[in-house]
Amino acid sequence: MSYSAIDLETQSAPKQARFSMTKMVVAALAVASAVVVFATVRSMAAPAPMMYVGAGYSMAATRPAMISPVHTSMRAMSPVGRFSMSKQNTKIGMKAASSSSRAALRVNASPEKKMSVSDLSKDELNGKVALVRCDLNVPLDGKTITDDTRIRASIPTIKYLVDNGAKVLLTSHLGRPKDGPEDKFSLAPVAARLSELLGQDVTFVSDCIGEPVKEAVASMSAGSVALLENVRFYKEETKNDPDFAKKLAANADLFVNDAFGTAHRAHGSTEGVTKYLTPSVAGFLLQKELDYLQGAVAEPARPFAAIVGGSKVSSKIGVIESLLEKCDKLIIGGGMVFTFLKARGLEVGTSLVEEDKLELAKNLERIAKEKGVELILPSDVILADAFSADANTQVADASAIPEGWMGLDQGPKATEEIVKALGECKTVIWNGPMGVFEFEKFAAGTMDVANALAKLTKDGATTIIGGGDSVAAVEKAKVADQMSHISTGGGASLELLEGKVLPGVAALNAKPVAVA
Fold this sequence. Notes:
Blueprint: H1 15-43, H2 79-83, H3 87-93, H4 100-105, H5 122-125, E1 129-133, E2 140-141, E3 144-145, H6 149-163, E4 167-171, H7 188-198, E5 202-205, H8 211-218, E6 225-228, H9 242-249, E7 254-257, E8 280-282, H10 284-298, E9 304-308, H11 317-323, E10 329-332, H12 337-343, H13 358-371, E11 374-376, E12 380-384, E13 393-397, E14 406-410, H14 412-422, E15 427-431, H15 444-458, E16 462-465, H16 469-476, E17 485-486, H17 491-497, H18 503-506
Parallel strand pairs: 1-4, 1-7, 4-6, 5-6, 7-8, 9-10, 9-15, 10-11, 15-16, 16-17
Antiparallel strand pairs: 2-3, 12-13, 12-14
């Protein structure tokens, strides 16, 4: 339970041509500079007031991140198209109180594009051995798979490779084995389920390196699939040992990373193998995650709102600081609300508070005000006399929480105000629940926000659920398939939203840049 980054290889050219190109580049830079200056001056013209919607709220016991579902509907438009800023969106998004750096940020280039498996033609794939890193870390009850969502998520990439004649060599981890091979962490059951989903035999290989793999590859034909045993049966995997990575890559011609959930780890099967295999490209699932999460951050359709919930400010500092540089509205939910509330000098009863983060909360509010970001906190809260599903409850103004009571959800007034604030938004990212939604008495705030986002999606907005408990929340509300994108990564999603470079992504080949 939880309350939860153009490498242009300039080729030799005649002197006159190089000179002409230089003039063009200089001219382009001059135009770009003028745009930034214009945007900066405009953004400083008339400060817009910052609005707060009250304050207050909630708590939660943490639980391990669960398996996140993947919903593949792409809606009417591609992420890139939907994230492009129109003149109207730019006008809305440029807040008067924004600094020059914020204005410049909005005209900066998007993150470097990586090659995708779709960039590889049949001629480039036919008969080649493709080592594919999937995330097949599924929950098991003995040998029975209890949730095959991650297996299903890997199918589009596998089928593309199969249909284009590649010999597909799948690799993944499962669980956290401590001392070498453990039968309970074997990927054998996954091979059987893959066979069912693909409608063809999937050979299970008893090791991930060495002679067993060499023999398996020798017997493979175009379009066949084999699954290697758990890479984490070798401690060298998580240590990103070069020798291990070389052995893992030894039998392949190219590499496809389709495991977004582990892209933030520099492991042998995610980063190490790229040093020995070219091309190294993104699979469809990984590419979709990058298109949405990076697109939403780099070029969002505006207004752009971020909803950040969860129990502790400390776990979301990087995300909040990064989003304050980019969003128009920041809605705070979950237990972290009470740290903000107490930082304002208000009483919070027995609600969860990080005493050592009070100054941080004050600083984040100050930054929001300086950048013209509308910071929204709940104006009322649902209180409990104990952290229990059967606790007595009452609704109170966020500024009037009585002693002995704790906030476990946002109140009805707060929900109404938040839903109204989201109404005009064209892009929304949600990470972290609004309350203890595992307890029915304290689920309304989270469920209402989930339903509001579903309606926004239907109306044409881009809605992104950033992994973890937010996924469980939209599933509980039965609106998961109505969101634009459900992220499959917990830690990877957070790090990408923080603006961090994911090792598993950085190691992939960059998409060639077309030069007119």
